[in-house]
Here is the input.
Amino acid sequence: MTLEQIVIKKGVKLGQLDAESDSSLLDNCFIDNGQLEDLLDVSKTESIIVGRTGAGKSAFVYHISKSVEHSVILDPHSISVQFVEHSNIIQFLNKLGIKLDLFYRMLWRHILIVELLKLRYELRSEDASANFIRRLYESVSRDQTKQRALNYFRDWGDKFWLETSEHLKEITNKLSQDLKSGLGSKFSSLDISLEGAKHLSDSVRTEVKSLATQVISQIQIQKLNEVFDLLSDYAFNDKQKKFYILIDKLDEDWAGTETRCRLIRALIEETKSFRNIPQVKIITALRVDLLDIVFDKTRDSGFQQDKYESYLVKISWSEQDLKNLIESRLREVYKRQYTSVDVGFSDVFPSPKHGQDALSYIIQRTLMRPRDVIQFVNECFFAALNTPRISWRSIHVAESTYSAKRLDSLKEEWHEIFPSLETTVEMLRGIVSPFTRTTLSNDKIEAIASDLAINSDDGNCDPCTVLAKRMYEAGQNLEVSDFMYESLLCLYQVGVIGAKISTLDSFSWSYKDQPKLKKSEIKRTNQMAVHRMVCHVLEISEKEILSLPRKQK
Here is the structure.
């Protein structure tokens, strides 16, 4: 079939919006933005893939799993974390206010060691596990420095082949036994459960908490460092073989928020610890806002966030990267659907109009991430159904649907931090962009603040809602302008607006430049602009061509 004979039919897409459903195209159209090499290099620290929703984190995990010889993907849903979270012992200790960070680190360390051994020795049965332990003893039994490590393998050797969920249950049950032993005969009849903790008298609670804290503090996680040494010398000493454990979907609801944050922080700490095994790398994918929540909720005295920077791979895409992604997928899609002819962007999309080319028009309406580009082009195909090419009219029709979907996606993406975004974003509806603070209607802002103060649940933790409620409390010296500044900070952070802090600056955008603004900065802001991605759905017009988000250097 020639290009002239092609008619766009139902179901033509540039790809699916999630990597799991997009594997067919990912196998042939993965675009390396220059960050893959550091992730694959086991000698480098870079191991935590960080990015916003749709930035391509899962695509990197999928591609690595398919391109290396030895890898395994861990899904938090499949390892029964909820069994641990809802177990009587954990609920009991949580109710007493006892920090379980050390226990969570031990959980991860054990899980990761077991998964590595399964990967290295294909331990899928009790016999295979026993053979491994026998060979290990024969190799190192005379080395006194390895004896404590051998004790670990002696305790767990016949269970290595079990599913990870079974290991979690074993470890949790062992903690329960250790606690009962630590509490002694005086509390032998104590109900170790959430209800049991609720009914303790103050004096008993204090004594039990003290004893329980001692039990937790005696978890010998440091002894497992010797296991690292043993694994390095015996199991992972072949420099030609590299092993990867890949962990994704940590932003999903596999545990309650507090437990999830503690477990993710523990995983990050263990990712650092596993650097002691040179041919091994633990690679984790994390949404950037979730990482912020994790650090905020688990921050303790002496915490220094900059110590984690060398482990982070902050996914970023240049305009050229996104152009390559579109071109690569177009070629593959047309090859599968229509023709063996090498199809390019200009064969499908219209010629430039008024100095604006279609590719730049699309990319300018994204947050510079693959999912946005794929979704916009998919909508273009849908709008151009039964026509030979995508026209400018099709692009504008597609933009209407795309803009609404992207705003909905932003609300979902940031719901955990800004659950009231759906309301606060309305202060921008109908304005002309760029704009200044004086452009915004005071009456509209006050109405939005009143709506949030009256109609939001008491548990709503959105900073805009919290401030709105305080505005209407007696004795609070807060003005409508305070609510406006808080809302603008939110809208900047989620990517709805950009800010030009001084006349000499270009517009700054959270997804490309400074991720957050301070209140003092938003007060000094010279101009703000609504991102073109949501202009259509918010009925916003532009009075001039905006300077684009600054390109990556």
Notes: The beta strands are 48-51, 70-74, 243-247, 280-287, 312-314, 432-433, 497-500, 527-530, 541-542.
